[in-house]
Amino acid sequence: MDLKTTYLGFELEHPLAPSASPLTGDVDMLKILEDNGASLVVLHSLFEEQIEHHQKLSEHFINLGTECFAESLTYFPPLEELDHGTEEYLDLVRRAKEALSIPVVASLNGSHSGDWTHTARLIESAGADALELNIYYLAMDMEETGEAVERRYLDTLKAVKSEVGLPVTVKLSPFFSSPSHMAHRLVEGGANGLSLFNRFYQPDILIEELEHYPHLELSDSRDLRLTLRWLAVLYGRIACPLAATSGIHTVEDVVKAVMAGASVAHLCSALLKNGPGHINSLKKQLLEWMESHEYESLGQMRGCMSRMNCPNPAALERANYMRTLYSW
Amino acid sequence: MTPTIAAMDGNEAAAYVAHRTNEVIAIYPITPSSPMGEHADAWSSEGICNIWGGVPSVTEMQSEGGAAGAVHGALQAGALTTTFTASQGLLLMIPNMYKIAGELLPTVFHVAARTVATHALSIFCDHSDVMAARQTGFAMLASSSVQEVMDFALIAQAATLKSRIPFLHFFDGFRTSHEIARIEVLSDPVIRGMIDEAWVRNHKLRAMSPDHPSLRGTSQNPDVFFQCREACNPFYAEGPGIVREMMDRFAKLTGRKYGLFDYSGHPEAERVIVAMGSGAETAGETTRFLAGRGEKVGVVRVRLYRPFDVKGFVECLPPTTGRIAVLDRTKEPGGVGEPLYLDVMAALAEGVAEHPGRFQKFPRVTGGRYGLSSKEFTPSMVKAVFDELGKDRPKNHFTVGIRDDVTHTSLDFDPEFSLEQDGVVRAMFFGLGADGTVGANKNSIKIIAEETPNFAQGYFVYDSRKAGSVTISHLRFGPRPISASYLIESANFIGCHQFNFLDRIEMLDKAAPGATFLLNSPYSAEEVWDHLPCEVQKPIREKGLKFYVIDAYGVAREAGMGQRINTIMQTCFFSISGVLPREEAMASIKKSIEKTYGSKGREVVEKNFQVVDRAVANLHPVEVPVGVGWRGRPAPVPDIAPDFVRRVTAIMLAGQGDQLPVSAFPPDGTWPTGTARWEKRNIALEIPIWDSGVCIQCNKCALVCPHAAIRVKVFDSPAPGAAPDSFLPVDYKGPEYAGKQYAVQVAPEDCTGCGVCVDVCPAKNKSVPRLKAINMLPHAEHVDRERVNYEFFLGLPDPDRESVHVDSVKGPQFMVPLFEYSGACSGCGETPYLKLLSQLFGDRLLIANATGCSSIYGGNLPTTPWTTNAEGRGPAWANSLFEDNAEFGLGFRLAVDRHQDQARRLLTALEPEFGSGRVRQILEAPQATEEDIKIQRNRVADLKEHLKTSRQAEAERLVPLADYLVDKSVWIVGGDGWAYDIGFGGLDHVLWSGKNVNILVLDTMVYSNTGGQMSKSTPLGAVAKFAADGKGVPRKNLGQMVMAYGHCYVAQVALGARDIQTVKAFLEAERYPGPSIIIAYSQCIAHGINMTIGMQHQKAAVESGFWPLYRYNPMNLAKGENPLHLDSKSPQKKLRDFMNMETRFRVLGFMDPDRQSELLEAAEAESAQYWDYLEKLAGLDFSNQVAGGTPQSKSE
Question: What are the structural domain ranges in chain B?
Answer without folding.
Answer: 4-210+223-253, 261-411, 433-621, 639-672, 681-815, 888-963, 1004-1192
